[in-house]
Amino acid sequence: MTDRQKGRGGAAVGVLSDLDAVEAAAVLYLRLWCDGPEAQAQVWDDFRRTLGPDHGRRALKSFETLCGLCTRHGRRPLMRHSLRCACVGADESCFATFIATASGGEREDAMLIATLLVRADVAPLVAALASDVGLAFRRMNLKDPRAQMPEPHETLH
What we know:
Structural class: mainly alpha
Largest sheet: 2 strands, antiparallel
Oligomer: single chain
Strand content: under 5%
Number of helices: 7
Shape: globular
């Protein structure tokens, strides 16, 4: 993979404020999860607070498994912007669209998008997990709409 190919997934293609709640949650929680243990604890706290301990734990497990499979079986590493960046990168946009599509019941389209992220043999599993995660994000937004609304931030790459 060339240096040029490595950077393509990070190209800014939008801004967080243009995403719906599920898509914004997908981007923000992906960034948090990849930011390390302290940020992962914040993900757990958000899931627990809005979904309750049992549903939150299940949602967290699905999200953790989804992120792990994308990392281990990804076609290439997912490029991410910094946590406080207002832009959305190409890979982040794909991930967000994938989760929103899967949780919207569009299984075939979700499977197609999954093949952009991971190997084809892993696509059915990640599509099922993306549906679970997206539905959790939808429930979180219904319980606490402010939890899913991204705060405006300056661009910090």
